[in-house]
Design a protein that fits this description.
It contains six helices and twelve strands. The protein is α/β, with parallel strands linked by helices and 244 residues long. It is elongated, with a radius of gyration of 20 Å.
Length: 244
């Protein structure tokens, strides 16, 4: 029997009953065609998950009963990776956010760089943030994570880089002409990785990052697209220094 995992942004406690968000309820009822009493797993991103079951099932409203906290396996990487991604267009950014979550990053920061083509005013940025948060939640449901990566608001590269604290760890920026490869890096526990948008990081971007003590990270002789480059780098870092 398939037991779906459901992310809900609400407090969870054994012995309580709650109404699921409409979109989540419709997915369980109409797409998965679950029935009353069907088991589910609930989590809200705080590191815990709960066993539950469907208690009420309507056309649009679905309620669940929270039964007990589960002894969840630790699925979080020991490597604390922050992905600072130059905002890419449309589905490319969705793919990057989704797969970075599956690969275990702990934080995602959308960056506005010199070559970013996506225009984000305050209203549009809010809508994109809500959409990316939903992508993160779905990726955690699929991958078994019980902690959601932190998602920051989009910000300009220079502003973000100048405000970085020492707790950011190793600072890396993807650059085909970079000075170091993933295998040549010393052991580390945390890092922030900057990836440019479709046009890559400009000379001005690289200069800003150099002044903020970022090291250029190269991934080999081929030039990778933005939706490939960051995910390849995360995979390499997790395989060498993390838990893959």
């Amino acid at each position: 029997m398939r037991i779906p995992r459901v992310c809900v942004f609400a407090d969870l406690a054994a012995g309580t009953e709650m109404l699921l968000p409409t979109q989540v309820g419709e997915h369980l009822a109409r797409v998965l065609r679950l029935e009353r009493g069907h088991p589910i797993v609930l989590f809200n991103g705080d590191g815990h998950e709960f066993r539950g079951e469907i208690s009420q099932l309507g056309k649009r409203a679905v309620s669940v009963r929270v039964l007990e906290m589960l002894d969840s396996a630790n699925r979080e990487s020991p490597l604390q990776l922050t992905l600072a991604q130059g905002v890419a267009r449309g589905e490319k950014m969705d793919l990057i956010v989704q797969k970075a979550t599956e690969l275990g990053v702990s934080r995602i920061i959308p960056l506005i760089t010199e070559r970013t083509e996506v225009k984000l005013d305050a209203e549009r940025a809010g809508r994109r943030l809500a959409h990316w948060q939903a992508v993160i939640a779905a990726a955690c449901e699929q991958s078994g994570r019980v902690r959601l990566p932190t998602l920051a608001a989009p910000q300009r590269l220079a502003t973000w880089a100048s405000a970085l604290g020492e707790e950011s760890g190793l600072r890396l920026a993807l650059d085909p002409a970079g000075e170091v490869s993933p295998r040549a890096l010393p052991a580390f526990a945390s890092a922030v990785l900057v990836v440019g948008p479709e046009g890559g990081l400009s000379d001005q971007d690289l200069n800003i990052l150099d002044q903020a003590d970022f090291r250029g990270l190269r991934l080999g002789p081929r030039i990778l697209r933005t939706e490939t480059a960051g995910l390849a780098a995360i995979t390499a870092l997790q395989a060498i220094h993390g838990d893959l």
